[in-house]
């Protein structure tokens, strides 16, 4: 995750006629080094998950080069710290609106199957007590796992949007889809 970068190299090709600085979501960073078309900045903080607006700016001119820095979650500890708790009622209303949101939660696996080196299935994400879970969410996991149907797990992943399928009774059902990065007991 790009939260606090010791160094952040930015490559661009523009004509400079003054001091170059980096601006990330309004914060200003001084140029530490330049090597050809690569500009290096130190101790850069990328403030939010997802897309952050940034730009290289020539301070005594009107020239700037806008770009985006995407901050992602990579380790399980980062997922635990930064992901939002999955809110089924909010997300189920319009899963596509929340696509790209990093989420975590507890769930009971109601369906799970492996296909090659991927796992997919369904999670019930609302615990109603006494072992009863509901509110279905579909998931994919880009690896195989030892978990089986009926296991209660903690999940960490990214909302992909909505997923539609036809039930055995012929009904069209649409639920949220989450691409998981981690599952744990």
Question: Describe it for me?
Answer:
The protein is mainly β and 185 residues long. It folds into two domains: 4-71, Immunoglobulin-like, CATH 2.60.40; 76-184, Beta Barrel (OB fold (Dihydrolipoamide Acetyltransferase, E2P)), CATH 2.40.50. The chain is 7% helix and 59% strand. It has two helices and twelve strands. It has helices spanning 76-82, 88-93; strands at residues 4-11, 20-24, 27-35, 38-45, 50-58, 64-71, 84-85, 102-115, 118-127, 133-141, 152-166, 172-184. The strands form two sheets. Strands 1-4-3-2-5-6 form a six-stranded antiparallel β-sheet, with no helix packed on it. Strand 2 (20-24) and strand 3 (27-35) form a beta hairpin. The longest helix has 7 residues, at 76-82. It is elongated, with a radius of gyration of 22 Å. The protein starts with a strand and ends with a strand. The mean pLDDT is 88.
